[in-house]
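Troubleshooting: if your tokenizer reports a length mismatch, compare your output against this known-good record of 793 residues.
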Amino acid sequence: MSLRLLLVLGAFLAFGPAPLSAEAAPEADPTVQAQETGEIRGQVVERGTSRPLAGAAVEVVDGPGPVTTDGQGRFVLRNVPVGTVTVRAQLLGYETLEVPDVRVTPGRATSLTLELRERALVLEGIEVRAARIVTRDDAPTSTIRLSAEEVRRTAGGQTDISRTLLSLPGVVGGVDNRNDLLVRGGGPGENAYWLDGIRIPRINHFETQGVGGGALGLLNVEFIEDTDFYAGGFPARYGDALSSVLVVRNRSGSSDRFRGDVTVGASEAGVTVDGPLGDRGTLLFSLRRSYLQLLFQLLDLPIRPAYWDTQLRAEWDLDDRNRITVVGLGAIDELELVPPEDGDPAGIEIANRVLDNDQWGYTTGVVWRRLVDAGTVRLALSRSMDRFLFEGRNADTDEILVSNDAWEAENRIRLDADLRLAPRVVLGVGAEATREGIRSDFLDAGGPGRPISDPLRFDDTVRWWSGAGWTQLSAPLMEGRPGTRGLTATAGLRADTHELLAGGVQVSPRLGVAWGPLAEWEFTASTGRFLQPPPRLALAVEVDDRLVNRGLPFQEARHFVAGAAWSPSDAVRVSLEGFHKPYRNLPRSVADPRVVLQNEGGDFGFVGAEPLVGDARGRARGVEVFVQAQSDGRGYLLTSYTLSRSEFRGPDGQFRPSSWDARHALDLTGGLRFGPGDRWELGSRWRIVSGRPFTPFDPDASAEAFPRTGVGVPDRSRLNEERTPAYHRLDVRLDRRVTLAGLTGRVYLDIQNLYNRSNLFGFTYTQDPAFPDNLRPREQIGLLPTVGFTLEW
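Known-good structure output:
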């Protein structure tokens, strides 16, 4: 066992199992701890329309008797034992819902929204099981809901929602130092993110411009109430994505008094404050600062990343029907490159190879929600702004090889509604208009080692309009036997237009069905057309004062999904899904037709700054198995396996493996709570992923380019011909709930890659004599223990 692991274990044991206050000391009366209680506050609403449901019975399973929701569907559960509980909601005419993993603390009321699905009345004497695994009528396939507790406790997840999603079927990551979402063979730029009804262009620090992946997530997990992740077949209300959509809903702030917490995590420290705003409003606010740059400096690493981020959520109930919600999210990222003092050749190469990378950005929005008799109407206004500063120079001559100073902005107005037309018949309808733009001062010197042979320079501002409208109807087609779902269907239609793209108004149909012939079985299928514009940076490229990429088509993917699910009990679900996803109209390089943009974006920097043609194609297909055993008592388990294949081709017609073509991926995530009051929780995640493709270097071109650029030149005639070895690692996390001077909190030990597996993710070209083949292996994270804590007041 390494010295650093021993030191971290010692620190954890010093702060973990030992008593942290008189109340927790061994000589104290053990009944004092058993009497720790908290509150759960929330609302019961109708799934699909968000109409509040009065008269619903809400209770803690195996707890005191239920409470009844008021006229606005609100409830308060008091004197709930501290720890993790399951909450049940029941109402005549609706399916009973049980929500596990609801975390209760004495310092802060837990916020919870319970969505009940309408159902046909069940005859007396027929037993109907409660639903624990949430499914959606408007997205019958490929949809998974995760609670805040599931995001927080994931071993190796670093409280980063993108890394948590790696436990799900069809989702693989890029490399350990990035949190790219690669969904069903797609690239990191094919996903869309929504936060409390506002479109969020970026959710990562040190984002790769044009594709969205990055280093670390900037969403604060302490804000999250739950999330919906659509790995395919998502509803018509969501566009601008080819692979997946992540929808995050944040909790409300405390309505009785101001509360807060201090958190120190694996890479940053922060403070969160929440409390009332008058009699009808609440506030959530957080500010975080990284300390990675200090650790990297102590280790004499050439990369020194530093960042700030902040998040805001405020809401006011103007009356019983009208609510205003304000959302804010911002980040500042700064990267310093410092050659190592000891002259380490590998460190010097990193400092010469990596682009100087500074960024900042924000999204602000306001949502007006109006309850009407038939459902809910929402009007959202938002603005997003991001600035990217990249620069790469020759280390010896100081020649500027590439420089990119880009400002991206969008102003969006969105109106949508969910309306109940009849029992179990819900209509969704909406429209949006977006004013977008990019100002880019760009230079690529071209020549040896650069993606283009001739210099490219442009400095201009480009603005355009885009818009969309949609409708979706979900309804039962055939009633099932009592206790079964029967046959339901959803049909949607979306229309998109973009001022700079060819094709005018593009219409995209969506269709899905779900059939539950038995209480334990459900069969689902969906299909649809999905569109996404090329990156904004690509649309700004000018040659001879002409926008050369104007007139590109929308990128297109079609989803064909079918699956079956078996639920032998309330808390267990086993699902099998197959998918086929053909692509068309993908941008590819004019300079090298073999380079398809979908294959790019796996490293820091930018994508799309060159003349492009939109005629490339691709395909991804596979089978997924997913086992969910929701927490029932003290244990939980997620098991996912994906067998898939992903390929793209240029105008030569030859399909080649994509950069994201991981054929096999297996993930086992589980945990156990133990000790008095379930104060301890041990979680683990083991992943194995088959080798990923990479392109070998051209020896002659690399030898010529390396002294100038510090990087090798890929041999595109052998595009993705080679593969890395299989990747696997075990992450373990140990949490303990603690009490300190009347305050409560959590302390954790997280160990990534417990058995210190050496995982290779590629090579860099080098002229270091220590590597006669000119290939320096690039290894992923080895054994990495971290300690963190959260203290609430």
